[in-house]
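Its record is quoted verbatim for completeness.
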Amino acid sequence: MRYNPKFVLGDLTEMRRIVDENPFATMISDTPDGLVASHYAMMLDPERDDLTIVAHVGRPDERLHGLGERELLVIFAGPHGYISPSWYGDGTQVPTWNYSAVHLAGVPVLLSDAENLRALDRLVQHFERHNPEPRLMWEPPNDPAAIEQLATGTVGFRLTPTRVSAKRKMSQNKPADLVERVIAELQGDGPFAHPQLAAEMRRVHPAAGE
């Protein structure tokens, strides 16, 4: 991403939060046959406190990307949305897009079959914990043998990034009164309402007295 000091996100805790809350990522590889992109759910490695991620791909995507052979770029996109110039009132203004994103790049390490199974189990638990009646991998009516067989169709990997780029563009270049107006519009019921983006903006711009 283009560097802009106004929008740089360097806080590790916030980067981890964005990754955790927006797990459906885009992975990009520069292969001998050209650029390749895929989309998969990924999660932070629960055994680490950095930006190491654990994920899996369905075969033959591991060959398509050359996993373990070259650098992989993984992009996590947080809340984002259109910001109308009409929200700014009088004066010359242009439309823009507010967003947050975390880019992680590095050479992934392939997981063993046993590690891949544990990673798949954790991924299922990660999402099913929100379900009032969670459906977990190793619990009935699932057959453990069938689960292990299905898992052979996937390849797990761990990526500890050697390059990190993160940006959070949330109207930091606007005066406080305009920021409040944008947040109010995003919290409203107009065509571009986006309460999640409004909440993300509020993290960057705490209300007076907070």
